[in-house]
């Protein structure tokens, strides 16, 4: 089974390079290849699909505008795009710290099992603490953890991305998770 070349690291880098030249077809391909991963990242932060979809649109606008700034020597294309999406989501949380406001008609349609404001605050504090602990790792391990656990990359994918054997990636991830666990417990 052959993988789609536009979803490989090199393929995505090439699409970003074409987007930097205002290639709309490349932008469409880039969106199709990466939107599910980016939406997953933003959805985990915002916990609201409609809001996350709006933020993703904003993130892709930034990708379109900043594509010429992407440097594949500094980061992988997915890491670069995830950071744009993640930062967009965090900016939205800063603008609306209590979440999105809804009108009365929308409130009538909210099921009773929704989380309370207190639970949302606690969940956001947990996310912030987790992000803080991940940020304490060295840069390469941060990227690896985020790609593995936020974007669903396999160990094989990570091994290819970081130029390491799969067993080394497995060890690095285990150690990174241990460091994160210690940080969260402190």
TrEMBL record:
Protein's UniProt name: Sigma-70 family RNA polymerase sigma factor
Family annotation (Pfam families): Sigma70_r2 (PF04542), Sigma70_r4_2 (PF08281)
SUPFAM superfamilies, sorted: Sigma2 domain of RNA polymerase sigma factors, Sigma3 and sigma4 domains of RNA polymerase sigma factors
Single GO term (MF): sigma factor activity
Domain (RNA polymerase sigma factor 70 region 4 type) ranges: 129-179
Keyword Transcription: yes
Source organism superkingdom: Bacteria
């Amino acid at each position: 089974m052959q993988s789609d070349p536009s979803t490989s690291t090199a393929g995505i880098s090439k699409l970003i390079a074409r987007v930097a030249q205002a290639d709309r077809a490349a932008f469409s391909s880039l969106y199709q290849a990466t939107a599910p991963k980016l939406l997953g990242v933003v959805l985990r932060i915002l916990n609201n699909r409609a809001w996350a979809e709006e933020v993703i649109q904003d993130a892709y606008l930034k990708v379109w505008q900043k594509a010429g700034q992407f440097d594949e020597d500094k980061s992988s294309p997915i890491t670069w795009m995830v950071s744009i999406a993640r930062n967009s989501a965090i900016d939205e949380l800063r603008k609306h710290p209590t979440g999105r406001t809804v009108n009365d008609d929308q409130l009538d349609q909210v099921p009773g099992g929704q989380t309370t404001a207190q639970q949302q605050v606690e969940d956001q504090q947990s996310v912030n603490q987790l992000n803080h602990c991940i940020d304490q790792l060295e840069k390469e391990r941060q990227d690896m953890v985020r790609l593995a656990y936020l974007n669903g990359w396999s160990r094989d994918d990570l091994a290819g991305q970081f130029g390491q054997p799969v067993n080394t990636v497995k060890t690095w991830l285990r150690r990174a998770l241990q460091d994160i666990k210690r940080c969260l417990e402190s």
